[in-house]
Amino acid sequence: MWYAKMYFSEGREIFQYDSLGTQGVPDVQKEFPFLESLLSFQELDCVEVTPILQSITDNWSRFIAEDDRDALENFKRKLGRLASIHIYFRLLYVHCRYRQSAMYIQNDRGSAEDAQILDELRQLPEQLPLYQQQIQRFFELVLDVDSAGREPQAQAAKNYFHDSPKDPGLFSFRPIPLSFEPVEPGRCSPVLYSSSIRDMIDYSLRSCVERNITVRRCKNCGRWFPQTGRVSAEYCERPVPRGEQVCREIGAFKQWTKKRSDDPIFKAYRREYKRRFAWIKAGRITDEQFYAWSEKAREEKKKCDREIISLEDFQQWLRDSKI
Length: 323
Prior knowledge:
Elements: E1 3-9, E2 12-18, E3 28-33, H1 36-42, H2 46-66, H3 69-85, H4 90-106, H5 112-143, H6 152-159, E4 160-161, E5 164-165, E6 178-184, E7 187-193, H7 197-210, E8 215-217, E9 224-226, H8 247-261, H9 264-282, H10 287-305, H11 311-320
Antiparallel strand pairs: 1-2, 1-7, 2-3, 4-5, 6-7, 8-9
Helix pairs in contact: 2-3, 2-5, 3-4, 5-7, 9-10, 9-11, 10-11
């Protein structure tokens, strides 16, 4: 039997998918930073995905009704493309791949399971944007440290009556198929055996509440990020394209720049540094002369930072120093 497993382990989330049900040898295993699948789902363009889903649905319907092999090939191609867009869609891919194999062995094309898959596919174009809206509302009322505070447990208790949300726009929790098993050498964890995209969303949200993990919008990129470290963190470490800096590195540089811009010692040093650097281009000094001066200037700046000399003495040295 096919399976789709999801679990959290030491700041990571792990997905394992297998169309044959071979435990320990999944077709696909993917690792992401904690909560990345949910946050990237929030950024999913449903308008882009909807035509792909509609084509998949039409082709699956033709295949199970008419044994249309062209429709099956189109279905497999579009489903593969969908699975590459987001890890949640890998669930559909694995389930359907299992059914394609099983129906020929069991000779039961058009079974109740096939009809159930068709029904799920038809509902997804409406469900996906609805899930995004419900997650957004859950962030605002329960997890967002800036609007809901630092106690997700208390906010969840405030906004739910048993398992029903008081606000109709909030995500509604339901029982999910959780196991508890070894996941790594010497380590056990709750494991979700998901049967739907909704299960994975549910598991991610409840895990945040259980662990008292809040979220915040990054001051640099504007994306949500989980506060798994310092609650005061304002910049994320979300994945970025190869070669780009993560926002936390950019934020650290901004903080350093701001701190330096308020430092009169650094400002005096930087002003003279730029002035003398321009002399190289003007031909007034050589590179070697400039770097020899800058080394002496850094030594004098260190003295000023340590209050061995005053700011006025340092400024006087900068004005009078010779190349």
